[in-house]
Automatic annotation (TrEMBL):
Function: Plays a role in pre-mRNA splicing as a core component of the spliceosomal U1, U2, U4 and U5 small nuclear ribonucleoproteins (snRNPs), the building blocks of the spliceosome.
Lineage of source species: Eukaryota, Metazoa, Spiralia, Lophotrochozoa, Platyhelminthes
Gene Ontology terms for molecular function: RNA binding
Main subcellular location: cytoplasm
UniProt protein name: Small nuclear ribonucleoprotein Sm D1
PROSITE patterns, per the entry: SM
Ribonucleoprotein among keywords: yes
A GO cellular-component term linked to this record: cytoplasm
């Protein structure tokens, strides 16, 4: 499981984030996006060698985060379960899925529409002109 996918599951958890510049941010996670940008509520922001600031909301850019400090009570065993690979969108290549054509149909720059199959270690490429 990717770290970002794990962090996306931490909505409504209270965490402490340490930034690369030494600042500590403590608050409740409202959400995490794919760039690891973290949106927090009820935030206490402690700049290095300064007094704490209290904020309603704060967004921390993902590349500024050094690490997350998670609460001890967090059920890691249930959160780390991987739901499997993400569903792929259909592209320009796909299985024909027919008894007569058990290979791949794709679009090639050099050959146009092509059908590719491998039978008895013989590669057959059929070019379909349109």
């Amino acid at each position: 499981m990717k770290l970002v996918r794990f962090l996306m599951k931490l909505s409504h958890e209270t965490v402490t984030i340490e930034l690369k510049n030494g600042t500590q941010v403590h608050g409740s996670i409202a959400g995490v996006d794919v760039s690891m940008n973290t949106h927090l509520r009820s935030v206490t922001l402690t700049l290095k060698n300064r007094d704490a600031l209290h904020l309603d909301t704060l967004t921390v850019r993902g590349n500024n985060i050094r690490y997350f400090i998670l609460p001890e009570s967090l059920p890691l065993d249930t959160l780390l379960i991987d739901e499997g690979p993400p569903k792929r969108k259909p592209g320009r290549e796909g299985n024909i899925g027919s008894l007569f054509f058990p290979g791949k149909f794709f679009v090639s720059r050099n050959y146009g529409f092509c059908y590719h199959t491998k039978t008895n270690d013989l590669v057959v490429r059929v070019v379909i002109d349109s």
